Automatic annotation (TrEMBL):
Record-linked SUPFAM superfamilies: Lysozyme-like
InterPro entries referenced in this protein's UniProt entry, alphabetically: Lysozyme-like_dom_sf, Transglycosylase_SLT_dom_1
Family to which the UniProt record says this protein belongs: Belongs to the transglycosylase Slt family.
Pfam families found in the cross-reference section: SLT (PF01464)
PANTHER family assigned: MEMBRANE-BOUND LYTIC MUREIN TRANSGLYCOSYLASE C, SOLUBLE LYTIC MUREIN TRANSGLYCOSYLASE-RELATED
Top-level taxon of the source organism: Bacteria
Protein name according to UniProt: Transglycosylase SLT domain-containing protein
Domain annotation Transglycosylase SLT: ranges: 118-215
Length: 256
Protein backbone atom coordinates (compact mmCIF):
# COMPACT_ATOMS: atom_id res chain seq x y z
CA UNK A 1 0.00 0.00 0.00
CA UNK A 2 2.84 2.36 0.94
CA UNK A 3 4.64 1.57 -2.31
CA UNK A 4 1.58 2.59 -4.32
CA UNK A 5 1.58 6.07 -2.70
CA UNK A 6 5.34 6.53 -3.01
CA UNK A 7 5.34 6.22 -6.82
CA UNK A 8 2.80 9.03 -7.52
CA UNK A 9 4.51 11.24 -4.95
CA UNK A 10 7.88 10.73 -6.63
CA UNK A 11 6.40 11.65 -10.02
CA UNK A 12 4.84 14.82 -8.62
CA UNK A 13 8.10 15.83 -6.90
CA UNK A 14 10.09 15.26 -10.10
CA UNK A 15 7.63 17.34 -12.11
CA UNK A 16 7.84 20.13 -9.52
CA UNK A 17 11.63 20.17 -9.64
CA UNK A 18 11.62 20.22 -13.46
CA UNK A 19 9.19 23.15 -13.47
CA UNK A 20 11.48 25.11 -11.13
CA UNK A 21 14.54 24.42 -13.30
CA UNK A 22 12.63 25.43 -16.47
CA UNK A 23 11.39 28.65 -14.84
CA UNK A 24 14.99 29.52 -13.85
CA UNK A 25 16.40 28.76 -17.29
CA UNK A 26 13.81 30.83 -19.23
CA UNK A 27 15.13 34.33 -18.25
CA UNK A 28 18.68 33.19 -18.96
CA UNK A 29 17.69 31.95 -22.39
CA UNK A 30 15.86 35.21 -23.13
CA UNK A 31 18.92 37.26 -22.07
CA UNK A 32 21.17 35.11 -24.26
CA UNK A 33 18.86 35.58 -27.26
CA UNK A 34 18.73 39.35 -26.76
CA UNK A 35 22.52 39.54 -26.50
CA UNK A 36 22.90 37.48 -29.70
CA UNK A 37 20.40 39.71 -31.52
CA UNK A 38 22.37 42.81 -30.53
CA UNK A 39 25.62 41.29 -31.76
CA UNK A 40 24.09 40.23 -35.07
CA UNK A 41 22.27 43.50 -35.68
CA UNK A 42 24.29 45.85 -37.89
CA UNK A 43 23.64 49.53 -37.30
CA UNK A 44 23.87 51.44 -40.59
CA UNK A 45 26.41 54.30 -40.44
CA UNK A 46 24.95 57.76 -40.10
CA UNK A 47 25.27 59.56 -43.40
CA UNK A 48 26.65 63.08 -43.13
CA UNK A 49 24.82 65.64 -45.23
CA UNK A 50 26.91 66.89 -48.10
CA UNK A 51 28.26 70.38 -47.49
CA UNK A 52 27.53 72.85 -50.22
CA UNK A 53 30.70 74.38 -51.68
CA UNK A 54 31.30 77.92 -50.50
CA UNK A 55 30.85 80.69 -53.02
CA UNK A 56 33.93 82.66 -54.05
CA UNK A 57 32.85 85.65 -51.96
CA UNK A 58 32.42 83.48 -48.86
CA UNK A 59 36.01 82.25 -49.24
CA UNK A 60 37.57 85.71 -49.49
CA UNK A 61 38.64 87.82 -46.53
CA UNK A 62 41.33 90.16 -45.33
CA UNK A 63 42.77 89.49 -41.87
CA UNK A 64 39.72 87.31 -41.10
CA UNK A 65 37.40 90.24 -41.87
CA UNK A 66 34.97 89.07 -44.55
CA UNK A 67 33.48 90.87 -47.48
CA UNK A 68 29.75 91.68 -47.20
CA UNK A 69 27.94 88.67 -48.69
CA UNK A 70 25.01 89.35 -50.96
CA UNK A 71 26.29 92.78 -52.00
CA UNK A 72 26.26 92.57 -55.81
CA UNK A 73 28.29 95.76 -56.24
CA UNK A 74 31.10 94.46 -54.04
CA UNK A 75 30.97 91.07 -55.73
CA UNK A 76 31.24 92.58 -59.24
CA UNK A 77 34.15 94.78 -58.17
CA UNK A 78 35.99 91.89 -56.50
CA UNK A 79 35.61 89.64 -59.55
CA UNK A 80 36.74 92.43 -61.88
CA UNK A 81 39.93 93.10 -59.89
CA UNK A 82 40.65 89.36 -59.53
CA UNK A 83 40.33 88.99 -63.31
CA UNK A 84 42.78 91.86 -63.80
CA UNK A 85 45.45 89.94 -61.85
CA UNK A 86 45.26 86.61 -63.66
CA UNK A 87 48.26 85.26 -65.53
CA UNK A 88 46.65 86.11 -68.86
CA UNK A 89 46.89 89.79 -68.01
CA UNK A 90 50.16 90.09 -66.07
CA UNK A 91 52.04 87.12 -67.59
CA UNK A 92 54.80 87.21 -64.98
CA UNK A 93 56.05 85.19 -61.99
CA UNK A 94 57.59 88.26 -60.40
CA UNK A 95 55.01 88.28 -57.59
CA UNK A 96 55.70 84.69 -56.57
CA UNK A 97 59.45 85.23 -56.63
CA UNK A 98 59.12 88.34 -54.46
CA UNK A 99 56.85 86.50 -52.04
CA UNK A 100 59.38 83.69 -51.66
CA UNK A 101 62.14 86.22 -51.04
CA UNK A 102 60.31 88.65 -48.73
CA UNK A 103 57.80 86.62 -46.72
CA UNK A 104 60.29 84.65 -44.56
CA UNK A 105 61.55 88.01 -43.26
CA UNK A 106 58.20 89.85 -43.07
CA UNK A 107 56.07 87.12 -41.45
CA UNK A 108 57.89 86.78 -38.08
CA UNK A 109 58.05 90.57 -37.67
CA UNK A 110 54.29 90.91 -38.23
CA UNK A 111 53.70 88.12 -35.71
CA UNK A 112 55.98 89.79 -33.14
CA UNK A 113 53.90 92.99 -33.35
CA UNK A 114 50.57 91.13 -33.24
CA UNK A 115 49.62 92.16 -36.76
CA UNK A 116 47.65 89.76 -39.02
CA UNK A 117 49.74 87.80 -41.50
CA UNK A 118 47.68 89.12 -44.42
CA UNK A 119 49.48 92.47 -44.18
CA UNK A 120 52.46 90.89 -45.92
CA UNK A 121 50.44 91.19 -49.14
CA UNK A 122 50.48 94.98 -48.79
CA UNK A 123 54.19 94.87 -49.52
CA UNK A 124 53.49 93.14 -52.85
CA UNK A 125 50.74 95.61 -53.75
CA UNK A 126 52.89 98.58 -52.72
CA UNK A 127 56.04 97.66 -54.59
CA UNK A 128 55.89 94.12 -55.91
CA UNK A 129 54.99 95.10 -59.44
CA UNK A 130 57.40 98.01 -59.68
CA UNK A 131 60.67 99.20 -58.21
CA UNK A 132 62.32 102.49 -57.42
CA UNK A 133 60.78 105.70 -56.15
CA UNK A 134 57.16 106.71 -56.83
CA UNK A 135 56.37 110.10 -58.42
CA UNK A 136 55.41 111.36 -54.96
CA UNK A 137 58.72 110.28 -53.43
CA UNK A 138 57.69 107.02 -51.71
CA UNK A 139 60.34 104.29 -51.83
CA UNK A 140 61.24 100.82 -50.62
CA UNK A 141 59.18 97.68 -50.17
CA UNK A 142 56.67 99.49 -47.94
CA UNK A 143 56.73 102.68 -50.05
CA UNK A 144 57.44 105.11 -47.21
CA UNK A 145 57.56 108.83 -47.83
CA UNK A 146 60.81 110.33 -46.42
CA UNK A 147 59.12 112.20 -43.56
CA UNK A 148 56.98 109.22 -42.51
CA UNK A 149 60.01 106.93 -42.66
CA UNK A 150 62.02 109.20 -40.34
CA UNK A 151 59.11 109.48 -37.87
CA UNK A 152 59.17 105.69 -37.44
CA UNK A 153 62.92 105.41 -36.91
CA UNK A 154 64.31 104.96 -40.41
CA UNK A 155 67.34 106.86 -41.64
CA UNK A 156 66.76 108.70 -44.91
CA UNK A 157 69.60 110.96 -46.03
CA UNK A 158 72.17 111.33 -48.79
CA UNK A 159 74.19 108.36 -47.57
CA UNK A 160 71.64 105.98 -46.05
CA UNK A 161 68.07 105.06 -46.97
CA UNK A 162 66.62 102.46 -44.61
CA UNK A 163 63.47 102.31 -46.70
CA UNK A 164 65.31 99.74 -48.85
CA UNK A 165 66.25 97.62 -45.84
CA UNK A 166 63.49 95.00 -45.73
CA UNK A 167 63.86 94.15 -42.04
CA UNK A 168 64.09 97.74 -40.77
CA UNK A 169 61.33 99.03 -43.03
CA UNK A 170 59.02 96.16 -42.02
CA UNK A 171 59.52 97.05 -38.33
CA UNK A 172 58.66 100.68 -39.16
CA UNK A 173 55.58 99.56 -41.13
CA UNK A 174 54.42 97.44 -38.18
CA UNK A 175 54.69 100.42 -35.82
CA UNK A 176 52.70 102.55 -38.25
CA UNK A 177 50.03 99.87 -38.81
CA UNK A 178 49.61 99.17 -35.10
CA UNK A 179 49.29 102.87 -34.32
CA UNK A 180 46.51 103.25 -36.90
CA UNK A 181 44.62 100.23 -35.57
CA UNK A 182 44.24 101.84 -32.13
CA UNK A 183 41.82 104.42 -33.54
CA UNK A 184 40.28 102.55 -36.49
CA UNK A 185 39.77 99.13 -34.82
CA UNK A 186 39.41 97.40 -38.18
CA UNK A 187 42.28 95.80 -40.06
CA UNK A 188 40.49 96.43 -43.37
CA UNK A 189 40.28 100.16 -42.60
CA UNK A 190 43.94 100.14 -41.54
CA UNK A 191 44.90 98.66 -44.92
CA UNK A 192 42.91 101.39 -46.69
CA UNK A 193 44.51 104.04 -44.45
CA UNK A 194 47.95 102.73 -45.39
CA UNK A 195 47.12 103.75 -48.94
CA UNK A 196 45.35 107.08 -48.45
CA UNK A 197 46.71 108.18 -45.09
CA UNK A 198 45.31 107.82 -41.59
CA UNK A 199 44.03 111.41 -41.31
CA UNK A 200 42.31 111.43 -44.68
CA UNK A 201 40.50 108.15 -44.04
CA UNK A 202 39.29 109.27 -40.61
CA UNK A 203 37.96 112.46 -42.19
CA UNK A 204 35.97 110.40 -44.72
CA UNK A 205 34.61 108.16 -41.97
CA UNK A 206 33.33 111.22 -40.10
CA UNK A 207 31.97 112.95 -43.22
CA UNK A 208 30.16 109.84 -44.46
CA UNK A 209 29.20 108.57 -41.00
CA UNK A 210 30.30 105.16 -42.29
CA UNK A 211 33.10 102.89 -41.06
CA UNK A 212 32.58 99.91 -43.38
CA UNK A 213 35.28 100.14 -46.03
CA UNK A 214 33.19 98.30 -48.63
CA UNK A 215 30.29 100.74 -48.25
CA UNK A 216 32.36 103.93 -48.25
CA UNK A 217 32.79 106.27 -51.22
CA UNK A 218 36.54 106.72 -51.67
CA UNK A 219 38.85 107.79 -54.46
CA UNK A 220 39.42 105.19 -57.18
CA UNK A 221 42.84 104.06 -55.93
CA UNK A 222 41.86 103.70 -52.26
CA UNK A 223 38.43 102.31 -53.12
CA UNK A 224 40.10 99.41 -54.94
CA UNK A 225 43.13 99.02 -52.68
CA UNK A 226 41.87 96.29 -50.31
CA UNK A 227 40.38 94.43 -53.28
CA UNK A 228 43.88 94.41 -54.83
CA UNK A 229 45.39 93.11 -51.59
CA UNK A 230 42.83 90.29 -51.45
CA UNK A 231 43.54 89.49 -55.13
CA UNK A 232 47.25 89.35 -54.36
CA UNK A 233 46.56 86.97 -51.48
CA UNK A 234 44.53 84.69 -53.77
CA UNK A 235 47.21 84.61 -56.47
CA UNK A 236 49.99 83.76 -54.02
CA UNK A 237 47.97 81.14 -52.14
CA UNK A 238 46.30 79.59 -55.21
CA UNK A 239 48.56 80.37 -58.20
CA UNK A 240 47.40 77.49 -60.40
CA UNK A 241 43.77 78.53 -60.01
CA UNK A 242 44.59 81.88 -61.60
CA UNK A 243 46.73 80.59 -64.43
CA UNK A 244 50.21 80.70 -62.86
CA UNK A 245 52.45 77.64 -62.92
CA UNK A 246 53.60 77.21 -59.33
CA UNK A 247 57.31 78.02 -58.88
CA UNK A 248 59.41 75.51 -56.92
CA UNK A 249 60.29 78.02 -54.22
CA UNK A 250 56.61 78.44 -53.31
CA UNK A 251 55.90 74.76 -52.74
CA UNK A 252 56.68 75.20 -49.05
CA UNK A 253 54.05 77.94 -48.75
CA UNK A 254 51.08 76.63 -50.69
CA UNK A 255 49.20 73.43 -51.31
CA UNK A 256 47.01 73.64 -54.40
Amino acid sequence: MLKKHIVPFSVVAALFIMAKVFAYQMPLAQKSLLKEEKLNTTIPPTEKPEEEPKSLMAQLNFAEETLPLGDKRVERKMKKILAAHTYGNTQTHRLQRKAAEWFPIIEPILAAYGIPDDFKYLALVESGMQGGVSPKGAAGVWQFMPGTARSYGLKVNGRTDDRYNLRKSTVAACKYIKEMYVGLESWTLVAAAYNVGDGRLRKQINNQNQDNYYKMKLNTETGGYVYKVISMKQIIEHPVRYGYAKPKELLAYNAE
